[in-house]
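Structure, all two chains, one model.
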Amino acid sequence: MPDATARPVVLVVEDDTSIAQFVAASLSASGLRPVSAGSAAQALAALDQLQGPHTPRLLIIDLGLPDRDGVDLIAALRQTLATPILVLSARLQEAQKIAALDAGADDYLTKPFGVGELLARVRAQLRRAATPATPGPVQRIGELELQRATRQVRLRGQPVHLSPIEYRLLERLARSPGQVVTHRQLLADVWGADQVDQLHYLRIYMGHLRARIEADPAAPRYLLTELGVGYRLADE
Amino acid sequence: MPPPLRHTPEGTRAFIATRQAALAGLSAALATGLCVLLDTRMSVAALALVYLVAVMAASAVLVRWAGVLTSFLSVSALNYFFVPPRYTFEVDAPEYLLTLAVLLAVSLGINALVASLRQRQALAETQARQAAQLLDLSEQLAACEGALATAQRAAGWLAATLGRPCAVFVRPAPIGPAAPADSAPHATPLPADLQCCGAAAGDTGPAPDFHAPSAAWAMQARRALGRGGADWPDLPLWCAPFGGPQPAGAVQVLLDNETAGVGPQPDADTLRHWQALARQTGLSVERERAATIARTAQDSARSEALRNTLLASLSHDLRTPLAGILGSASALHEQGSVMRPGERERLLSNLENEARDMSLMVDNILQMARLTPASCRLRLQWESLEEIVGVALPRLRRRWPGARLQCRIPKGLPPVQAEAALLVQVLANLVDNAARHGGGQAQILIQAGRARDGVFIAVRDHGPGLPEGDPHTLFDRLRQGLGTGQGEGGAAGLGLSLCDTIVRAHGGHITARRCTPGAEFRIELPAPDIALPDAPAPGEPDHA
């Protein structure tokens, strides 16, 4: 067990004590140092205090905070912080969850969630923060290979023919593998900012892309659906 | 009601009078001509009869004063031309005087009789028309549903029938005792919720401005006001409350308008009729209001019953996993340290599974609560069935590790307008249902494809099939209040009921049918045709 001060700090902003305790307990158990804050104000105070080696490596923010709208808080934090943000949302906060992702949150968990899901998301965010943000010229995910310079995609070594839109869709997701990209972000980046409401384009082209890449499109290995939110490309 | 008053120019009126007088003179002249022919052979008394015929004819055709004029002309002509001494107005024998007097009396009598007959006929016609209007109004209003719709229809009918802008003011709910009506209509406090349903006389023209304060005054004072009445006769309108001790509204007729200028003053008879129309409108509006209240009461009683059924079945279904959770948790808390690791492990996994079950059930309850009022709105988005099945499948495999879950989905299905989380829930409920009846080792096949008007998803199992009876009652079990029993009702009843509710809210339908072996639940959803941007964005080189 490493020294307590050397463990990566995770700031948990959650007002529900039992969830805060459960999250904190599982984070400590997996070698992290959780710092709890019960409100947005406490979170900002903690961020001021935690400096140098204690700077949080990840923020876990509940959307239903007592003193401030979670989306608002995330948008404000994103102006100065590049730290990954994981959002916790209740079942009926779909719209807020998407707004939080669009405001700069990196991932989300819907309550109720198990410790397995929590730790998987936390690890993925910490790993991503540790690796360089810009993907290399050749990107490999499982048996999928993306060559940016030549715009070539290979699956198990065989070239896959993609239409320009399909390629751009895949490339956009591959820019942040493992990370959820909202429908809005995808539509804006692939079709253009004026097409963000044309969700059916995305559904249909995602169907085409899956048909070319996935062995079983209904049980995708690479192109994962985040229901009602967006898509993510598997990162391993 | 008199015939509609027309604004007759003076010239026309003089012309009509002249013509009447001329006709009166003509009938007297004709009689005189006839008498000249008969003169040598007939007595004066007989000639008087000829004039009598002329008077009768004239009073039948002409207005009353022209008839009277004919009478006098006839008597004068008889006297002048035929009564000796001729060509004078003198009478030399009492016999002739009597003849002339009788002729005058009889012809004036005829005139009076005809006039009274006409008046009675006009009255009868007016009354018949008014009765027909009342009947028509009540028939028109009987077809309306809702107090406001009735008021609106009444206003339209009144405006069309009376030829004037009319409004029906309605107060949504009865209020307390009426305030003393001693203030002016302009100063009467307006009930905040007085609603005005107005209609213009014709199809054209801007909506006229109705006067709500006078309606409020009429409702408070419980009597009519406006021109032609005792109260506020200077107002250019007429306004009467509905009947009853606390009128719930009032009818207003605007007498002046911009196109016709100052309208004529309605007479007392017309106002009585309008009052009757106002009462009839009031009756219809009140009846609709009472019907609405009764309907609401019935609806709330029904939803109360549904809620009780739901609560009864839910409390049973929630208590079962809750008992397990509480038991396991307290056992682990108090005796965890002395338990064998395997035992502890089993309790912990029970805890997790029961909590997961409960979470699913709570989701169902929440969605049911959200979707049950007809006003609920879905957050529809374009969704792909492949993705929906793709999301549901791993969750269901985790939940039913013993079941064999397969799926068959063709490529290129069109997207549907749906709320994805709800469709995932439908699939989860159908698979749960199949797995529960298949005893955990179920073989379940999820299929999707194109249907006649869209797409379908079907969940087929090889379990014991459906219970006896009409398969569709499965979805209604909860709604009909049959879901209070053990097992079949409760969770499963709620689940299938929710499936039905969700699929209907999406404009689709769900059916169940027996298969050999097992059962199939099939959802059909509409899939509208959509246009796609098939051209790549400009400046995008195609790569091979």
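Chain A has a mean pLDDT of 88.
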